[in-house]
Amino acid sequence: MQITPRQILKLTPTRVWRTYRGGAELERWQGASDPADGDRPEAWIASTVRARNPGREHIQDEGLSRVITEECQAPLLADLIRDDPIGYLGTEHVRRFGPEMGVLSKIIDSCERLTLQVHPDRRFAKEVLHSEYGKTEAWYILGGRAVNGETPCVYFGFRPGITQDRWRDLFVRQDIPGMLNALHKIPVQAGDVFLIEGGVPHAIGAGCLLLEVQEPTDFTFRTERTTPSGAVIDDRLIHQGAGFDRLFDCFHYDGLSEEQTLRRWRIPSRHIPLADGATETILIGQEQTRLFGMKKLTVPRTCRQDKPARFCSIVISTGEGIINCGDRSMTVRQGDFLFAPAAAASLCWQSTGNTPLQILICEPPAE
Prior knowledge:
The chain is an alpha+beta fold. The chain is 17% helix and 30% strand.
């Protein structure tokens, strides 16, 4: 079957090595018969971004998504886009960004707390890392599990009184309790949405299962030399090659109260009724950021999704059903990853299971 940008594409799972462990809940969510935690706790969705894992450069194409076909060798999505950027990404997107998607999405499942970290904003990324993109991101909490009796939580945002000198001192002494206490600890539950701008310190807690949408880089600065499970972190993974002096310049030292932090970074969802009982929920809209978007469709029966000439990445979060695009149809189920090119026609969804079909849609930068 010839692949064209007029059809919706189903993608292979793209598991990526990280410094933390997890993945069992991700595999359970995708219907695996023997789910287990390991060193690949993330599944990257419609990715054209290579993972930055020093010491693993021999792993070819780590992080890049492939398209499921009837052929033996699944083609890279990045290669299809390179050969026809306008068809896959759209004329206006290519005019502004070239043949780059400008967005990356992931499913993250942690069985241990991630190391305390920060991602660069665009100014820092351009000045220090020579990248046009930083790594502002958003989280949609899919669910989670208790780990060692602790329910899922996230850490983010400096408490009042944390200065660069204070933060540097905690790092030099590797005072992990002191560093954790410098951030707000926020319990999370399914349906919560957070925006984490570049420069905001954070860490995903143990037991979180979430969808992350972000700028298309893998820049992560860390302040812990070992993970909670005891793995030693390479210096290059700590400062991303920028050096220890610049590490502390990447953080924003706003020092907000917990109430101010939640008011600023926890995003309320907005629900829009559609025909036939369907609902569109805006999770991240342009009022929050123009760097990417995220929304959810809930389809009890059927729903037609009028699609502009823009691409999007799609996650089937709950249920099973059929998607019709042009003259082709495809069965989908919980855990499937899809890519809808710009040239693809409008999408018609039909739920065929006992529960409503829920579809998460990750959108590119606003035009």
